[in-house]
Design goal:
This protein is mostly helical. It is built from three helices and three strands; from the N terminus they run E-E-E-H-H-H. It has a three-stranded antiparallel β-sheet with strand order 1-2-3, covered by helices on one side. Helix 2 runs antiparallel to helix 3.
Amino acid sequence: MKAEHTPGPWFNTSQDDTPMGEVMDQPLDSGVTLHIGISGPNAKADARLIAAAPELLEALKACAAVCAGDTMHKQGLIDALAKARAAIAAATGESHE
């Protein structure tokens, strides 16, 4: 099944001097095809989570492959865990080390 969404990576382009959250698929001067403006008390955290969506999807696919037995060797498990940790860190704004 082919994905029907704007391909990642997506970027959290929220500015520190505003309460708004913002997500784009590339810099403004590069022909943006995805632009999401977010408001509300959790706007910046929501922007982080939305921007991490493509990375979270790839990590979930890697974990699903391991669970399905497609990747049972040790390196496959290590890679899936690393993708999951990086995606969680991107979504939460925390370090994944």
